[in-house]
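Good morning,

Attaching, inline, the backbone tokens for the sequence recovery test we're adding to the shared suite. The designed sequence is right after.
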């Protein structure tokens, strides 16, 4: 048996740790994700970009020096970028190696994991902060909870996926470090170094905190540990982890001074926007806490926690989610429908945590609106943030912006979050519960379960007709997500039309599946111009701590975007050289005739996710043909056959939203 086959066999036998959640949770998931090892053969555009993430970015990433930084443990400064690389990389690399059957990457990440574990202090501390900096009164550096959040989850994922008990033992010791230093009568997660309740009531903070990271996040940066430590309870059944997580959540109002946790009920009522919870609602941090609330809902059955999170999700999706599925405005949520087109918009960290939060809600509720939102995000914004050459991800990816600027700084929080969410994607495709199986995302791939196997083909979303072919049959209730955007879906089973297929729900086929059975699934894609709803120009202002905020500026111009099904297109100057102006201002210089339907053309490059289009437009008043390409492809920041721009240049502009010719 050759080395690769040996690796595959070993991994198949190692990935046998059953989910412990059902044993310790009062609420069982309606949909449980399948093992990442059971998803193979991912093809098409998404498969190519997942391969880029694994074979280029993760393998080339200089993880040794970041593990050295943790092992040396001399960090005392505010900078967080170096100390959050190892946790995200460990989880990403393990998932990618297992899914891709990549022995080389697997051995590399295992070596780095054990280096980190070997450096753990006797008291359990596993962060990068110098021992000389820490004391009984200051046991952590302010950013430790945020950085170690990803270490917790990485080690827990390793244990769940491989059964590696060293990872479980290490993460328990790390959790015990926090339990021993934070709790009733001990240290607490105060976002201010001096203010305590009730003096902190409605105080606007700036600066940093010893225990809760960035002060303007009002304590939520420390409390996000409720999620991985509650997950540890699910894995071990040790009640001390559950009790600590509940203690954390019960104190959010007191620590923040804004009663933001309690007032999530008003958000659920529809009487308050999530932006009003406190002066600066940091999107990514809120998402991570919300996932902790959902985990506690699973464990305890406390419906108020689910209601709070569903209410926040609904408000964000209604007012603050971009057409691509991305979220966050300058790393926060704005009031009303303010969503600027340019600037520090759609942070990749927020993309990662929003995708995970949405997946958790899907698992708990079975509502396909969450899978629809994930589809829109996956096929538009996730890969738009990824550099098509190196796999590096941007910090922000605005709907209208410039490139290559933004791909090459770092490593920072967002470059790491980008590779993490791409590595997690295969875990979002399918789910199961007993004899029920769910197909949530239609990516060309194989599912290789022990008793049930199938393949999906059709190059969706480029193609709108897919085939699901049974490779190993079983008695299964197969639930197929029918996207809400599709007006006329249809399904054939072995050539015969099935009735009752409707958009925005699962279509269920319950039968004894046989090898060779075939489902032909058709999602006809409408091509259309869409006027931007609730559009406004925006003007910036700043909070005392320097955070960028926005307000409305009146405008008479309303821009349009072009969509094909869920795929969002843009005008990208890389693919419009006929304009002879690479730094074209799309909002000022270009107008488009939205009364005419663009004409489909062949892909202008083989790398395109889907077909391309030509639209009738005007450049500075002169008629032109505009090439429209998928927004997901803006990661190409060079023209084929030409010298690549300098890495920090603003050589090319792009824009989803263009103004119509009057």
């Amino acid at each position: 048996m050759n080395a690769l086959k040996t690796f595959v066999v070993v991994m198949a036998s190692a990935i046998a740790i059953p989910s412990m959640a059902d044993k310790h949770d009062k609420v069982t998931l309606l949909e449980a994700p399948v093992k990442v090892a059971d998803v193979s053969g991912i093809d098409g555009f998404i498969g190519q970009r997942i391969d880029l993430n694994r074979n280029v970015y993760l393998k080339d990433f200089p993880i040794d020096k970041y593990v050295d930084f943790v092992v040396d443990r001399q960090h005392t400064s505010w900078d967080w970028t170096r100390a959050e690389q190892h946790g995200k990389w460990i989880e990403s690399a393990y998932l990618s190696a297992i899914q891709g059957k990549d022995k080389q990457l697997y051995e590399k990440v295992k070596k780095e994991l054990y280096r980190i574990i070997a450096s753990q202090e006797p008291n359990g501390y596993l962060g990068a902060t110098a021992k000389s900096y820490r004391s009984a009164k200051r046991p952590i550096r302010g950013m430790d909870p945020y950085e170690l959040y990803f270490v917790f989850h990485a080690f827990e994922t390793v244990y769940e996926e491989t059964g590696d008990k060293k990872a479980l033992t290490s993460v328990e010791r790390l959790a015990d470090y926090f339990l021993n230093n934070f709790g009733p009568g001990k240290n607490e997660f105060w976002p201010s170094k001096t203010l305590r309740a009730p003096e902190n009531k409605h105080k606007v903070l700036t600066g940093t905190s010893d225990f809760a990271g960035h002060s303007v996040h009002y304590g939520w940066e420390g409390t996000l540990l409720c999620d991985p430590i509650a997950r540890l309870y699910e894995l071990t059944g040790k009640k001390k982890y559950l009790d600590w997580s509940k203690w954390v959540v019960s104190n959010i109002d007191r620590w923040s001074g804004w009663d933001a946790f309690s007032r999530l009920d008003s958000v659920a009522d529809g009487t308050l926007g999530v932006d009003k919870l406190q002066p600066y609602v940091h999107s990514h941090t809120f998402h991570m806490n919300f996932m902790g609330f959902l985990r506690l809902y699973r464990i305890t059955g406390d419906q108020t926690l689910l209601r709070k999170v569903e209410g926040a999700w609904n408000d964000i999706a209604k007012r603050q989610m971009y057409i691509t599925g991305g979220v966050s405005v300058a790393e926060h949520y704005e009031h009303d429908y303010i969503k600027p087109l340019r600037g520090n918009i759609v942070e990749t960290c927020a993309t990662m945590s929003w995708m995970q939060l949405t997946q958790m809600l899907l698992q708990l509720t079975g509502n396909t609106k969450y899978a629809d939102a994930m589809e829109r995000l996956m096929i538009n914004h996730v890969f738009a943030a990824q550099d098509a050459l190196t796999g590096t991800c941007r910090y922000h990816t605005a709907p209208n912006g410039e490139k290559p600027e933004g791909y090459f700084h770092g490593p920072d929080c967002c470059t790491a979050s980008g590779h993490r969410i791409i590595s997690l994607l295969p875990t979002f495709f399918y789910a199961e519960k007993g004899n029920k199986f769910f197909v949530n995302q239609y990516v060309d791939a194989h599912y290789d379960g022990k008793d049930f196997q199938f393949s999906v083909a059709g190059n969706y979303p480029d193609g709108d007709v897919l085939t699901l072919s049974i490779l190993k049959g079983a008695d299964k209730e197969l639930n197929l997500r029918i996207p809400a955007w599709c007006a006329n879906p249809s399904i054939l089973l072995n050539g015969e039309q099935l009735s009752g297929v409707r958009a925005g729900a699962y279509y269920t086929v319950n039968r004894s599946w046989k090898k060779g059975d075939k489902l032909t699934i058709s999602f006809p894609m409408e091509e259309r111009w869409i006027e931007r709803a609730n559009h406004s120009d925006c003007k910036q202002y700043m909070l005392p701590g320097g955070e960028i905020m926005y307000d409305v500026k009146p405008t008479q111009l309303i821009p349009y975007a072009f969509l094909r099904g869920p795929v969002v297109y843009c005008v990208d100057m890389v693919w419009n050289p006929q304009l002879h102006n690479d730094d074209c201002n799309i909002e000022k210089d270009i107008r488009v005739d939205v009364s005419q339907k663009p004409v489909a053309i062949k892909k202008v490059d083989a790398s395109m996710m889907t077909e391309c289009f030509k639209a009738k437009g005007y450049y500075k008043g002169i008629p032109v043909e505009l090439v429209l390409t998928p927004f997901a492809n803006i990661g190409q920041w060079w023209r084929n056959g030409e010298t690549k721009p300098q890495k920090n240049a603003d050589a090319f502009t792009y824009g989803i939203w263009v103004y119509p010719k009057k």
